């Protein structure tokens, strides 16, 4: 069985308290409403079709203290969005700088050279051709015949799904090592699409109250997502690092689950101003049934009972997601403390979030050797990935 040897995470240099990001969005919405009232000879103080105070409620309810952004906030021009090409080029370049430094740190922690790696897997929503792992090969001294694979379009699911697919590879190559890195720089949504969506939706709201739900969805997205990189080094069970006792977790089994005809719940369609994040409020309702099915199937085929699980590493899509997991499995609230802590410190950084939770879990006192844990993510599809690990 494959093993997790080492983990490392990395973050951009720009960190913004949640209050700063909230003020940015509130000011944008206030300016839009003032313009509308001025054009229609209405009193701004008496308008009732949108309450600006609810912005604070959404930004505080997600229980996030701050988030990292790849592109600094003062480069975002809400009035003159730059289109698609320039922000994406900038995002790819800056993201690759961060990926390179984080993977370098991962290799240093494991005392390995790039040439000792047999497979590199990338997970991202960034539209890059060549793919990110091929760009990485030109920055670090990997073997030119190294195997690589790119997973795209999986969003928040990607961290756990990437682990599962690398696990599949190493089962057939037990003497090899592999690196997984994931990154979804969600601050790119601020480079046009979030502000453009709010401009369009608030402009339609007085005549079309049905747009209110889309405005709320956009505000929740603005309140949740940030940037970061997660990396993991894995090895097959015949690799020297495993035989030397350097492994931290054994992967016992994995389980994927796609819920049919639920693609409307979570998506990232491309617009004239960049990606638009779709995140429907009913996602948390689907999480309960989906994760329950995935976990039940995984435990049945591995012969482990739910009562034997002592460590839960769950992707914190938002507070409602974590609350849904606690309710569905009747867990004590502090069982998901690491997930809550990561959400508070960095927000939701999509696919890399679960790898940050894994990294933080391994840095803290953990259960005795032989204990079982679960790694769980969910994302577009709507899909779940569950991984059973043993300390």
TrEMBL record:
InterPro entries: Chalcone/stilbene_synt_C (IPR012328), FAE1_typ3_polyketide_synth (IPR013601), Polyketide_synthase_type-III (IPR011141), Thiolase-like (IPR016039). GO terms for molecular function: acyltransferase activity, transferring groups other than amino-acyl groups. Residues 257-390 form the Chalcone/stilbene synthase C-terminal domain. Pfam families: Chal_sti_synt_C, FAE1_CUT1_RppA. GO terms for biological process: fatty acid biosynthetic process; polyketide biosynthetic process. The active site is at 156 (acyl-thioester intermediate). Keywords: Acyltransferase, Transferase. GO terms for cellular component: membrane. Residues 95-185 form the FAE domain. Belongs to the thiolase-like superfamily. Chalcone/stilbene synthases family. This is 3-oxoacyl-ACP synthase.
